[in-house]
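User: Good morning. I'm curious how S-adenosylmethionine would be positioned relative to this chain. Could you predict the structure with it bound?
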Amino acid sequence: MISDNYGRVVTGLRISITRRCNLNCIYCHEEGENGLSRNEISQSTIERTVTAATYLGVNKVKFSGGEPLMRHDLEDIIGSLPDLKDISATTNGVLLKKRAAKLANSGLDRINISLPSMDMDHYGRITGYPTALPYVLEGIDAAVDAGLTPVKLNMVLLKSLNDSKIDDIIRFAGKYNGHVILQLIELMNFKNLGHYKVDINGVEKMLEIRASEIKERRMHRRKKYFIDGVEVELVRPLDNSNFCGNCNRLRITSTGQLKPCLMRNDNLIDIPENATVDELKKLLETVVEKREPYYKDCSK
Ligand code: SAM
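Assistant: Good morning! Here's the predicted structure, ligand included:
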């Protein structure tokens, strides 16, 4: 096990594998990679870095991007990984229908799919591509059929664009009999989008009133609300010292750098293309030393 100077044990890697994307979401934080080059990390670097990380206790990997399905070698990358407790990916779902079964066969355990709206007009205003929505819905079906469950639908909340339509997505998720979970995500304002910010306390109150049961998830102390048979999670990363205090992941950029925090780019460390697993273990230890919570609890 490897822990940082704040006692946070690192158990997960979030690996961005490309900056390319087939949508253009107005809110996208690009995993904090805006300004980085377009070079893409190789399969071999991913394999060796994940292997080194497993020796230090990492047992979960999540692939992100850009759009990870833009990489045709995602199945090969997953297939090359050592044994892990959990391999997942986050996708916009547009290309998922044809790939879901192959991804499951290569070792992917589960998937998150961005679904900011069920309304084609709003979906188009948010992502730039209204006609992509039916493909995403087919992708969700395919993911459930392939057993990439629970499928998590990620809905970043945007005032006047989707905040009054949460019920539509709860109803949609309900059709999948517990195989689909909804994650409502507070907008992280990377792009001057203050006018889209939703009153998250108001959303939380609405969920509390509607829920037949509420549970608290240990990771990030996130609450889960059970509404009409659907599990709904509210993800509140902003100004949240609990969120950072429970952060157990290290990031790898699509350019092949270790990144201790989504919110910062001033502490990246290059992963040398030819580094051995032993060298990578040492590098990971150095990076974990540098980790610090972005939102700290100043009351302690
Ligand atoms: N294209 C993939 C997708 O749509 O999932 C992967 C990349 S996307 C950057 C990864 C995740 O970040 C998605 O779940 C998305 O909802 C979330 N995300 C992106 N921008 C965000 C923002 N400004 N605030 C909160 N979450 C955001």
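The mean pLDDT is 94. The first helix runs from residue 43 to 55.
Let me know if you'd like a different ligand tried.
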